[in-house]
Amino acid sequence: MIFSENQPFDLPGRASKLTAWSVTPSRMGIVREFRFTTFAAAWRFMTAVADECKIKRHHPSWHNLYNQVTVTWTTHKPLGLSIKDVEMAEFCDRTAEQIGLKD
């Protein structure tokens, strides 16, 4: 994995705990697909993440198809995986669990 410059020392450890996420082919980001029970649940998830993105001033690349949401986190300046990406991935995991993932 390629990390952004000047990141906290614990970033690699925190990133390694995101076991449901995969490293992107560029090795500069992480990606995960979330499956919810309904489109409405997927939309609630996306709305909650979008609201947090406004607060954190950090936005994903994502795709929605009915009950599926694929989220990719990476940082463009400085290039690589940053603490912002990991914090937002952790937020996505917590939010998806609260909303309810499809079994």
Characterise this structure.
The chain has a single domain, classed as Transcriptional coactivator/pterin dehydratase (Gyrase A, domain 2, 2-Layer Sandwich), CATH 3.30.1360.20. 40% of the residues lie in helices and 24% in strands. Strands 1, 2, 3, 4 and 5 form a 5-stranded antiparallel β-sheet that branches. Strand 1 and strand 2 form a beta hairpin. The chain starts with 10 loop residues before the first helix and ends with a helix. Its EC number is 4.2.1.96. Keywords: Lyase. This is 4a-hydroxytetrahydrobiopterin dehydratase. Pfam families: Pterin_4a.
Please write out the topology:
Elements: H1 11-16, E1 22-23, E2 29-35, H2 39-56, E3 61-65, E4 68-76, E5 79-80, H3 83-99
Antiparallel strand pairs: 1-2, 2-4, 3-4, 4-5
Helix pairs in contact: 2-3
Top keywords for this entry?
103 residues, five-stranded antiparallel β-sheet, globular, Gyrase A, domain 2, alpha+beta, 3 helices, single chain, 24% strand
